[in-house]
Predict the structure.
Amino acid sequence: MIGQLYGDALNGASAELEYVDGTRVALETARWFEPVDGDEALLSRCASPTLDIGSGPGRLTTALTRRGVQALGIDINPRAVTLTRRAGGFALLRDVFDEVPDSGRWATALLADGNIGIGGNPETLLRRVRQLVRPGGEVLVEVAAPETRSRVDRVRLRRGPLAGDWFGWATVSVNDIQRLARASGFPVVDSWTRHGRWMASLS
């Protein structure tokens, strides 16, 4: 159900993200289709080849391809992969924790749009991504603002009476990314902000 609801949302259907306390927020999928202020701060640091993890409809994957950077998007939703390919990017239906092509040889890995939250365990995710990038490679992560508390929430997608399964989703404050990165095998961490978005480079 979560896959169907997410796919429908990428097609323009309304959807909400529901928290266990009953709070609901609109899932604004439209913002993942067009360039977002601050994207350039990530795109300009990507080297070939770049792996875009949780690439969604392929906003960043296709932008990299257009500028001549070899890029591959991976996403667990078939509709997201189809949209990326239709937009001119390369994408595979793949979970980051499954077998990923060219493991250990990616120059850059992207975890944009809050995708550090994938799986609800950011340290485990970063350890996995560490396996995917080559020695000296860089992981670019979008994190939350300093005033945000790092946490793990249980959430699900909902559209009217239809609801998906509960899953974990993490939020990581820029205040905590250095500690998490070093625990995951990245000794060098740099962070910055552009247009209200916070990013970090791990290497």
Remarks:
- The longest helix spans residues 122-132.
